[in-house]
Automatic annotation (TrEMBL):
Molecular function (Gene Ontology), one example: methyltransferase activity
Species assigned in the record: Streptomyces eurocidicus
Alphabetical list of PANTHER family matching this protein: PUTATIVE (AFU_ORTHOLOGUE AFUA_2G14390)-RELATED (PTHR43861:SF3), TRANS-ACONITATE 2-METHYLTRANSFERASE-RELATED (PTHR43861)
Name by which UniProt lists this protein: Methyltransferase type 12
GO terms for biological process, alphabetical: antibiotic biosynthetic process; methylation
Keyword field: Methyltransferase, Transferase
Length: 354
C-alpha cells in the first residue's frame, strides 16, 4: 500500500475524531505552577501544531516565581495519543527513522555517551524514551562492554530489540515499570525525554529507583533559558508543540536531583547544543505558509493546483533553507557559548560523591 492509499484509508477515522472537536483533548486549565505551586503565571507562547499541522491550539505558561514553563491546558492521555499518532510511527515512521539517522544526530549520540566515560564503564544502561534505539546503537561504539536496555511507550522499542540495537526492551511508562527494575542499572539516560512526560518529578523518582547505589543518571533537556527561544518565538523548534509539556530551568532540575539524594557531578550547558535553530525555524515557516499536504487529518486531499503550488514554492524556498543551515553551522561555536544554546546536560550520581 503506497502513502496515498494509506492516507485515504486513515482519513475517515481522523475526520470522525475531529468532528467531535479538539477541546476535549485538553485537561482543565491550571491556575498554579505544577513545579512550585505559585499562582503567579504569565503566558509565554501561543501556537498551533507547526509540525504535522493537525488542528488545535496550544498555550505555554510560565511561572513568575520559579520560571518553570508548561503546557496549559495540558493535553490529556487521549490528546497525546492523537497528536503523537503518525509522527514517530505509522505515516511518520519513515521520516522519523531518516531524521534520527542523520549524521548530526549520530555525533550528538556519541557526545552524550562520552559524557559518562569519566565515571567509568556502566555494566548495564537503561535508555528511557529510546524510541527505535538509535542512541544505544551509537553508544555501543563508546561503551563496548555495556549492556543496553531501552524503555518506551511505542512499538519502536520492540523493533529496536529485533534489530539488535538494545538487549532488552521494556514497553510502557518508566514510573509504572520501575518497581520491577529497582536497582538494576549502573546508568540511566533521559535524553530529551523529561519534557514529554506529564509528571517530570515522577519520572526522575522512578529513574533514581532503578539505579544501583553509585550509579549515574544522565539527563539532556531543551534549555528554556536559551536566548534563541525569545528571538524565534513560536518558530523555535524545541518548543515542539504539542508534544513538549514541560520546560525545566537548569537550577530547578539541579535542585530536584539533589533533593532526591543525588550528587550532581557534571554539568554542560554548551556542548549539547544542536545547531538547527535557524534552519528548523525556516522549515517551520515555509511549512506553515505552503498549501496543505495530503494528510488524513485534512478534510480532503489537495487539489492538483495546490499540489503544483506546494512543489513550486518548496523548490523556491530551498536557497533559504540552505542558507539557514549554513548559518547554524557557522554560528554554532559562538551561539552555544553566549546564552543561545538550545539544550543542557546534567550528570548525577545516585548517592554522595565518590
Amino acid at each position: 500500500m503506497n502513502r496515498t492509499q494509506q492516507v485515504a484509508r486513515l482519513r475517515g477515522d481522523y475526520q470522525r475524531e475531529l468532528a467531535l472537536g479538539t477541546e476535549r483533548f485538553h485537561a482543565p486549565r491550571r491556575t498554579t505552577c505544577p513545579w512550585c505551586g505559585s499562582s503567579r503565571l504569565r503566558t509565554r507562547l501561543r501556537t498551533v501544531d507547526l509540525l504535522q499541522h493537525k488542528p488545535g491550539a496550544f498555550v505555554l505558561d510560565q511561572c513568575r516565581d520559579c520560571a518553570h514553563s508548561f503546557q496549559n491546558p495540558r493535553l490529556t492521555p487521549e490528546g497525546l495519543a492523537f497528536y503523537y499518532r503518525d509522527y514517530y510511527d505509522g505515516l511518520g515512521a519513515e521520516k522519523a527513522e531518516w531524521f534520527f539517522k542523520l549524521q548530526g544526530n549520530r555525533r550528538r549520540y556519541l557526545a552524550s555517551a562520552r559524557a559518562l566515560r569519566p565515571f567509568g564503564t556502566p555494566r548495564r544502561w537503561l535508555d528511557v524514551g529510546t524510541g527505535h534505539g538509535h542512541f544505544p546503537e551509537a553508544a555501543r561504539k563508546v561503551h563496548t562492554t555495556t549492556v543496553f536496555d531501552g524503555i518506551d511507550i511505542s512499538e519502536g522499542v520492540t523493533e529496536a530489540k529485533r534489530r539488535g540495537r538494545i538487549d532488552e526492551a521494556h514497553r510502557g511508562l518508566l514510573p509504572d515499570l520501575a518497581p520491577g527494575l529497582a536497582g538494576r542499572y549502573d546508568a540511566v539516560s533521559l535524553f530529551h525525554c523529561l519534557e514529554h512526560t506529564p509528571d517530570p518529578r515522577a519520572e526522575l523518582t522512578a529513574a533514581k529507583s532503578v539505579l544501583a547505589p553509585g550509579g549515574h543518571l544522565i539527563i539532556e533537556v531543551p534549555d528554556p533559558e536559551s536566548r534563541m527561544s525569545g528571538l524565534l518565538g513560536r518558530w523555535w523548534l524545541p518548543y515542539l508543540q504539542p508534544q513538549h509539556l514541560h520546560f525545566i530551568p537548569f537550577a530547578n532540575l539541579r535542585r530536584e536531583l539533589e533533593s532526591l539524594g543525588c550528587t550532581v557531578v557534571a554539568v554542560e550547558r554548551h556542548e549539547p547544543h544542536h545547531p538547527v535553530d535557524l534552519v528548523a525555524a525556516a522549515v517551520l515557516m515555509v511549512g506553515h505558509a505552503l498549501p496543505p499536504a495530503d494528510e488524513p487529518w485534512h478534510a480532503g486531499p489537495p487539489s492538483g493546483l495546490q499540489r503544483m503550488a506546494r512543489t513550486a514554492l518548496f523548490g523556491a524556498s530551498l536557497p533559504l533553507l540552505a542558507g539557514a543551515y549554513g548559518l547554524d553551522e557557522l554560528l554554532a561555536p559562538v551561539l552555544s557559548r553566549t546564552g543561545f544554546s538550545n539544550a543542557y546536560r546534567i550528570v548525577a550520581r545516585n548517592g554522595s560523591a565518590a
